[in-house]
Amino acid sequence: MPAAIGLDIGSSTVRAVQISPSGRGHATLERVAQAPLAPGAVHDGEVVDPELVAMALRELWAAGGFKGRRVALGVSNQQVVVRQVDLPYLPDRELRQSLQFQVDEAIPIPVEQAILDYHPLETLTAEDGRQISRILLVAAQREMVQRLVEAVSRARLEPVLVDLDAFAMLRSLAPESSRGLLDEPDGELLIDLGSVVTNLVVHSQGQPRFVRILLMGGDAITDELEHTLGVDRDEAERLKAETGLLEPMELLEAHQAARIISERAGRFLDEVRGSVDYYAAQPDAVPVRRAVLTGGASRLRGLAERLEDALGMPVERGHPMQELRIGTVGLSHAELVDLQPDLAVAIGLALGAAE
Question: Per residue in 85-102, pLDDT tens?
């Protein structure tokens, strides 16, 4: 049976990746495709109209040549909460069974309306000798997940896994072979900057330490250009791509589009820096030594350099295909390189399904 396909349902595009697992050596990227979403189908990372999403998925499958209909899905929006929680130690099976009774005060979603999961971090010993399980708790609003599954099912696809986008990104951007690049226990910040939603993950040697979902992305710049300059969306996108983050700063005084882009990008940089500062203030935080940037909106010219200045650390471009052999995907090398920033989540979902 073919491995499940990683399916990333974004705010304006659906993307899918099929990977053939390998018992030895690298897995192979077999298929990559994407299709546009109708306006209003997804809002702020949440499926609003399941039928519109299903229509895009049918188009995606017709064009992509995927083998099979089993899919791994990702979620990332304001209906998802990730918290580090310490609980009395229990074996995994017992912990899962009792989770809903232990975490009701740790999340802002009523537990009866949430789907709960967790990622184990470590087992600690308290001062009184009791063992403590430290976990990353994930709570997703049940109705939001049901709408996602409904949309996929309407397209005659079979969901076999629902994962956190942040964990999928970690899987593709920090494969095992790259985890020795940082000294233990140094941390690395992964940033997936989308059109509407941005995922932040701090990890140490592949172990997630901190996750934050920001409801902000590249569309905020486009929307502001449209509104302030009175141009249509295509023109706003062209201005954003051509202008980027102009330097030196004195040029901004004579360039209205550049001022808008710089101001909106500055808000994003402040949020990322604030998230890193918040994490660094935690008692068990590991020092974050570098950042990796990916996502469609990360293409904004000058953003990586401004991010380096804001964070005071090196910022590198992410390479989610770094551990994959490339099969007959139907795209040229140049097309794959251009598409790579958009694929971190879809690739990570496919890799997760193959585990």
Answer: 999 999 999 999 999 999
Give the angle 103-85-315 at the CA atoms, nearest 5°: 135
Q: Are 108 and 228 in contact (CB under 8 A)?
A: no
CA–CA separation, 12 and 36 (whole Å)? 6
Nearest Cα residue to 84 out of 132, 126, 134: 134
Amino acid at 283: P
Helix 303-311 crosses helix 256-280 at what angle (to 10 degrees)? 40
If one counts every other C-beta atom within 10 angstroms of the C-beta of residue 212, the result is 18
Of the candidates 154, 306, 262, 285, which has an alpha carbon nearest to the alpha carbon of residue 209? Answer: 285
Rounded Cα gap, residues 330 and 83, in angstroms? 41
pLDDT of residue 186: 87
Give pTM, 2 decimals: 0.93
Q: What percent of the chain has pLDDT over 90?
A: 80
Compute the distance between CA of residue 52 and CA of residue 276 in angstroms, rounded to an integer.
37
Which distant-in-sequence residues (6+ apart) come within 8 Å of 100 by Cβ?
111, 112, 116
- DSSP-derived secondary structure letter, 27: -
Residues 326 and 30 sit within 8 Å (Cβ to Cβ): no
Which residue, 13, 38, 135, 136, is CA-closest to 80? Answer: 136
H-helix or E-strand containing 60?
helix 50-64
Instruction: Return the residue matching tokens 């986008």.
Output: 165
Is the pLDDT higher at 164 or at 331? Answer: 164
> Taking Cα atoms as reference points, which of 64, 72, 15 lies closest to residue 42?
15
Residues 41/59, Cβ–Cβ less than 8 Å: no
Is 102 in a helix, a strand, or coil?
Answer: helix
